[in-house]
Amino acid sequence: MGTIAITPQTHFAWISTTTVSSSPAPIAVRIEVTRGSDFTPVAATTVFVKPSRNVPVSEIIANLNDNEAAALRPSGFLDAYFSDQAPLPAETDAALASFIDDLGDVGPLYLAAANVSSLRSELESNFPELFSRLHYRSIDVDSIEAFTLIFFNSSRVRLVQSPRLLDPKSAISVTRRAVADCHIIWQRPAHPANTDENAIVLFTDVETTGLSHLDETLLEVGMIATRGSGMEEIGRFQTLVRPQGLDPEIIVAGFSDFIADMHSTSGLTTDYLAGPVPTTVEADKAMAEFITSLPAKPDYFGGASMTLDRNFLAANLDSYELIPAINLDATSVTTMVSTLLNPPDVAMGTVHRAIDDVEYNIRQFTSMAEALKARSTTEPAAGKV
């Protein structure tokens, strides 16, 4: 599991975009760069965006739906957007990339935001230069809140809601406050009655031939559904996968040296060649049957490589639509837990087999929750993050 080692010089880019139904691209982007575990402000910028040379800003504003107009107008956001000489997306991208470059050598720049998976896709599509300057590891604020709701305070109201209709500066303020709030809750004595014993998490991992869902092949999917703060297993699913019309031998022959070594060591290659390997159509049907057979619709999507997992599932399996929208991302939670204590060492199973990686993630979450609760009974709560 990857963890961001936060030092006084670790930099985060808190990013939020404003998207509306009348524009194909975000109409504003806000970046706030912070440093260290207390998130000391370093620099900030907001850039309005004109999505097309042929569409005036006034037309975008005029075509907002009632909810969008009601949410954005009171803050003065729409007045500022109308009066600004907003650049086109490519110009915005260049300006945001230049803003990051002007920070100098800050080391890896980690994205911090709500709904990181969706935001990453949005940034990659609309602002590729900015996207290229962000590290692949992130802090997903939805995951921080989900962890808190399950293990510490189920009655707490989520501060980060999706979709959000806020100006981007306000949105970042909310996400920052959510992290600080959860961080404080983790340091208070926990009561068993406050945990969420009905929460269902669909822990998932995929194995692939590479990192890009556009060019690489999905090989294996593993899922374990859990309920409550004890992570009681209520169902599991595992399947190999191959594209329709492609034989396993052809797929394995196309492995890079790195992938061939990894999947040979894990035993995946042996199982893949031994077969049978379901096609994407067959695997899709089986996955849908598994998810719909659970006692209730899952609340959270758990794992450690959430964006990669989501991208491969969405690109290959129609049953992705059954996947919960809110992440429970191990990297995000472990990173924030590490500011309070050393995350417990948890034995790993067979690395790079989907179901073994899922089991490891579950053990990691329960161990972190137990360690935080043990710490809270012996140490007073600290101040805000």
Helix-strand topology string? EEEHHHHEHHEHHEEEHHHHEHEHH
Query: What is the rounded distance between the termini?
Result: 24 Å
Give the number of helices.
15
Question: Helical residue percent?
Answer: 40-55%
Highlighted features:
single chain; 385 residues; alpha/beta; 5-stranded mixed sheet; 18% strand; globular; disordered C terminus
Structure description:
The protein has 385 residues and is α/β, with parallel strands linked by helices. Helices cover 41% and strands 18% of the residues. Strands 3-2-1-4-5 form a five-stranded mixed β-sheet, sandwiched between helices. A five-stranded mixed β-sheet has the order 8-7-6-9-10, with helices on both faces. The radius of gyration is 22 Å and the shape is globular. Residues 381-385 have low confidence and may be disordered.
Topology at a glance:
Layout (H helix, E strand, L loop, with lengths): L10 E8 L9 E8 L4 E9 L8 H6 L3 H7 L4 H7 L5 H13 L7 E5 L2 H11 L1 H5 L5 E3 H11 L16 H18 L14 E9 L9 E10 L4 E9 L7 H6 L3 H10 L1 H7 L5 H14 L6 E4 L2 H11 L9 E4 H8 L16 H23 L9
What's the gist of this structure?
The protein is an alpha/beta fold and 385 residues long.
